[in-house]
Amino acid sequence: MQLELVKFVSSNKPLIAGVKVSERVIAIIKSLLSSPTPAQDLAVMESMQSALENVVSAVFDGPNEVGEATSEVHVALCRIFEGLLQQLLSLKWTEPPLVEALGNYLIALGPFLKHFPDAVGSVINKLFELLTSLPFVVKDPATSRARHARLQICASFIRMAKAADKSVLPHMKGIADTMAYLQREGCLHRSEHNLLGEAFLVMASAAGIQQQQEVLAWLLEPLSQQWTQLEWQNKYLSDPLGLVCLCSDTSFMWSLFHTVTFFEKALKRSGTRKGSMNLQNNSAESSNFLHPMASHLSWMLPPLLKLLRAIHSIWSPSIHQMLPAEVKAAMTMSDVEWSSLLGGGNPKPSKGALTSTDGSQFETSREGYGEPNESDIRNWLKGVRDSG
Q1: Residue 203 to residue 212: CA distance in whole angstroms
Q2: Residues of the chain under the 50 pLDDT cut
């Protein structure tokens, strides 16, 4: 009820809504900076995020959005949210819960960034600053709040690309350069790279098919070099029990997982946006249209089919009886999974998964840390099945 009221006021009295929500957020930040009990104030701040998001969306991206920069109200609102943005950008938080909250607030201003493109670069730099402020290696990645916060910051790039739309396009090279630098320095997990890559695909979709093809080539070429090697295919996929050996090679196992899940994201995020094909494209030229992923299928599909066949084969009775106990236990499926595989019902996220605001799932296993356990193998099997 409260959020509906916020939307109503924002649509009818945008200036009042903008002033009130900005003042409230700034007051919470000041209180949090000086509070002896920051956890309690953080809860208040997190609760205000939805209000800010609804106000900004209604004002800058809703059916009754305020007009162009010639409008006095529009200019006043831009000044208000520019001031709030500067307050957020100035914060030097490094604790995971605070970093996560700050990232969410920056992305809540996404529709405003579409109207204020000069600030997009500063927001991108801040998100990378927040990401690198969090530890890369943690003792228990399965439960670490820092690990969760890093993933959420990376997911924020997807949300920003959606909300800010074409305002992000001039910054694509800078983002790519930063991603490449973090990779060279060994400061970016594969799951994080996948999320940033997915954000890149969202950005490219606003620029057209040619840009998508270039981005896909940049993202997929490094993956293809490993993916197409016959050595690992012969070692792990030539017979059903090879998959057991794969499950004991933790690092490579998760590397394959992230490769397969990124293929799925690339397929979903690339292509022509709904409603973006004009009448000319819908005529004779549309028959010559090739999906941006089409040129990659020839090297992508053969190993993927081998991998899926190897996974499916371990359910056969003759193979199942020879499997180690932990692999047998990992093969247990819930009723929801069975229903999904058989074509009924909707799959739900597993307990071992985090769900981002855009619906993406991230496995929360140790991703290369130590020996895989039953839960790790179950998550891996489920993730590859669902994505493949």
Answers
A1: 9
A2: 69-70, 275, 277-287, 348-366, 368
Q: Against a cut of 0.70, is the pTM above it?
A: yes
The per-residue pLDDT for 47 is 87
Quote the Cα angle for 202-205-210, to 5°. Answer: 135
Domain ranges of the chain: 232-270+294-388
- Burial label for 328, CB within 10 Å (0-12, 13-18, 19+), is middle
Using the Cα atoms of residue 42, residue 147, residue 220 and residue 289 in order, give the sign of their dihedral: negative
347 SS3 class: coil
